[in-house]
DNA sequence: ATAGGGTTAG
């Protein structure tokens, strides 16, 4: 790399001369120029073989192994450099690709095109444009790469503009611009362009069928397909997959049956119109999507030949139906599971909560990409094992695999879970350095800052977002204000939100919590009522729990009980728990007994009713009763999980459990907590507060 | 060794 950097410095401002042959970039590499000129046919053929060996190696073993062979070849031949460059682009290693590109002793138009492609595939279309404008020469590939790149990045006007400016268009250019228009929802424009196409090939039909299907126009797609009647199996496959994707498995099957099977009589058709492995895979995928795992398996067993896609789709199906043993059984039968197979298994185990098994798969796989790391990190993050998630994240960084947006979102989620502002801010640094900051990343940052206690940073991130704020962004910031007790600001943001995006059920949970913590009982009540009425969102059990909490906490116990009694869904432990908590604060023994019995019924193993009842007795000095409850609890083998709180300060991480006095400053901390508790009690007249209990044992 | 259309993983 040092060598490449030096080369980069010497060549940065030199431009290639216009030529169809590779040119030396720097005058000091005259030896390679000379050898290039003198290359005999035998030498050329030797390098061709070496280069295809390099390409194979890169394909099979990844970049690390390729480097070795590359090192021996690189001084000789521009194709070698291009092979390596293409491999980096293929792996989306754009920074390394650029380093390589800058360090190349010579470049031809393929080198430039490959670099354009790299930027276009990683969404950095401005960088691609910058290079495109400075290219010493352009060919049709260059223009086509830019047109499809603009289309992919959503800059459809620029794509069309470039297409019109392009001197010599080929069929790929036309297909690319039609694809771009369809991918950006410009159906009419696309079809107009399509009708003007001077040349079409087999990809044209697939382009239109797929584009229409992706715009939800499945019937129009089918009309086009049948009208063209080219017997193009790829186009049929597109539609089989498209019907499958939206769950219309019968339509998918109908199309699938229209493709000649061609395997029994060996007839097929003259132009090769017969089912291929993709047809079968697409059909299997349709069944998998529709939950028809048995039908999928039947096809899988029936199909004449299977490829990696078939195996992986089938395994994905079992993973999705949570039949992980079946998935593992198929994994056993595969001759060579590939990276995707392992990733599927990892995500399957992780999603089922079995992160240990997920990690065993992770450790077994030979080559881990960013996706593998992301899958296992997200798995740990999702089950709340934030420390494990962060330690894998460090391992990933150390292993040299570049983190992407998915990685950093998960890492931010783990920091949020740990409430670790310090680590969160470090990940934020990586975000600004390493990835394009899109909406999901911004959302993760807002959540992280708010959960780590820095509402100011959360708000700053939210306000300075340059990408579109989606419903998750709004939910994140509203929930932040809710958790920090700023009910008015949460409600203000909620009204602003309603002007831009549709709230979801998650929004209402945050708003209800905000009202609860801010004492805005009436507003909360109205908000709950407006959910179904104005927004068409039926309250779920979580909303009922929040409403009961809101009413109960503010002393409206009968009203809360009325809500519980009238619920269209059975109240669960969160609802009864909220009611019980309220009974305790407002000392309503009678209702507490009802709630406690109900809670014990819906959650027999839970300790909450016992603990609360015990504390109620203890709170008014009924020690014998308190002891009785405790005994009953022990007899039934119910144990309270110790609750922990922690805070991260300059001095490190401080962890506390109830009644735990092991901290060196325990006495001072408890005294401060106590005085806070008193101050709040005086301020709010809220009876005794369940949240701070330095005296509980 | 580089461009457009088809099926799987975060």
From TrEMBL:
PROSITE patterns assigned to the protein according to its UniProt record, in alphabetical order: PPR
Pfam family, one: E_motif
UniProt keyword annotation of Cell membrane present: no
Keyword Cytoplasm (UniProt): no
Keywords: Repeat
BP-aspect Gene Ontology terms: RNA modification; system development
One example GO MF annotation: RNA binding
Residues in PPR repeats: 77-107, 108-138, 139-173, 232-262, 276-310, 338-368, 369-403, 470-500, 504-539
PANTHER family on file: PENTATRICOPEPTIDE REPEAT-CONTAINING PROTEIN
NCBIfam families, per the entry: PPR (TIGR00756)
Protein name per Swiss-Prot or TrEMBL: Uncharacterized protein
Annotated source species: Spirodela intermedia
């Amino acid at each position: 790399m040092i060598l490449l950097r030096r080369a980069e410095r010497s060549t940065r401002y030199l431009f290639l001369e216009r030529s169809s042959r590779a040119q030396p970039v720097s005058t000091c590499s005259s030896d390679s120029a000379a050898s290039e000129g003198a290359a005999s046919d035998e030498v050329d053929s030797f390098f061709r073989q070496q280069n295809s060996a390099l390409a194979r190696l890169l394909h099979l073993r990844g970049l690390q192994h390729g480097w070795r062979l590359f090192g021996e070849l690189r001084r000789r031949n521009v194709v070698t450099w291009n092979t390596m460059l293409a491999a980096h682009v293929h792996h989306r290693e754009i920074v390394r690709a650029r380093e390589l590109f800058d360090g190349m002793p010579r470049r031809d138009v393929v080198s430039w095109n490959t670099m354009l492609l790299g930027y276009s595939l990683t969404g950095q279309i401005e960088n691609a444009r910058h290079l495109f404008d400075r290219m010493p020469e352009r060919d049709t590939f260059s223009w086509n790469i830019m047109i499809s790149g603009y289309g992919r990045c959503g800059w459809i006007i620029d794509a069309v503009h470039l297409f019109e400016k392009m001197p010599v268009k080929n069929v790929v250019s036309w297909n690319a611009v039609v694809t771009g228009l369809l991918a950006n929802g410009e159906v009419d424009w696309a079809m107009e362009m399509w009708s003007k196409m001077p040349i079409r090939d087999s990809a044209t039909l697939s382009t239109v069928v797929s584009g229409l299907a992706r715009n939800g126009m499945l019937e129009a797609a089918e009309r086009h397909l049948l009208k063209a009647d080219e017997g193009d199996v790829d186009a049929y496959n597109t539609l089989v997959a498209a019907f499958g994707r939206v769950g219309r498995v019968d339509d998918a099957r109908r199309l699938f049956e229209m493709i000649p099977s061609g395997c029994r009589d060996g007839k097929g058709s003259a132009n090769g119109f017969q089912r291929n492995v993709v047809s079968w895979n697409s059909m299997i995928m349709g069944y998998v999507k529709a939950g028809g795992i048995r039908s999928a398996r039947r096809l899988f067993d029936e199909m004449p030949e299977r490829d990696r896609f078939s195996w992986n789709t089938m395994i994905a199906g079992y993973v999705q139906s949570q039949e992980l043993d079946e998935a593992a059984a198929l994994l056993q039968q595969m001759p060579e599971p590939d990276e995707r197979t392992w990733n599927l298994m990892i995500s399957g185990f992780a999603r089922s909560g079995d992160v240990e098994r997920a990690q065993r798969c992770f450790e077994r796989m030979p080559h881990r990409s960013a996706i593998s790391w992301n899958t296992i990190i997200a798995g740990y993050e999702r089950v709340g094992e934030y420390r494990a998630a962060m330690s894998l994240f460090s391992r990933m960084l150390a292993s040299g695999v570049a983190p992407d947006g998915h990685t950093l979102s998960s890492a931010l989620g783990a920091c949020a879970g740990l409430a670790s502002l310090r680590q969160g801010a470090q990940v934020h640094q990586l975000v600004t350095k390493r990835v394009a900051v899109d909406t999901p990343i911004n959302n993760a940052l807002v959540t992280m800052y708010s959960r780590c206690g820095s509402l100011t940073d959360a708000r700053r991130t939210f306000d300075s977002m340059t990408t579109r704020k989606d419903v998750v962004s709004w939910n994140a910031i509203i929930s932040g204000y809710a958790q920090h007790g700023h009910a008015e600001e949460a409600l203000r943001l909620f009204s602003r939100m309603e002007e831009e995006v549709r709230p979801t059920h998650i929004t209402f949970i945050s708003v209800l919590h905000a009202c609860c913590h801010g004492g805005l009982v009436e507003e909360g009540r109205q908000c709950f009522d407006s959910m179904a009425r104005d927004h068409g969102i039926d309250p779920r059990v979580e909303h009922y729990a929040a409403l009961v909490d809101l009413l109960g906490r503010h002393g409206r116990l009968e009203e809360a009980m009325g809500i519980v009694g009238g619920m269209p869904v059975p109240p669960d432990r969160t609802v009864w728990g909220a009611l019980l908590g309220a009974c305790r604060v407002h000392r309503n023994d009678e209702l507490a007994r009802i709630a406690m019995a109900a809670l014990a019924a819906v959650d027999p193993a839970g300790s909450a009713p016992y603990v609360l009842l015990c504390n109620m007795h203890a709170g008014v000095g009924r020690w014998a009763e308190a002891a009785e409850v405790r005994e009953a609890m022990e007899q039934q083998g119910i144990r309270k999980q110790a609750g922990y709180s922690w805070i991260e300060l300059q001095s490190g991480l401080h962890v506390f459990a109830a009644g735990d006095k092991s901290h060196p400053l325990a006495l001072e901390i408890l005294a401060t907590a106590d005085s806070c508790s008193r101050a709040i009690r005086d301020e709010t007249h809220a009876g005794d507060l369940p949240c701070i209990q330095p005296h509980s044992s």
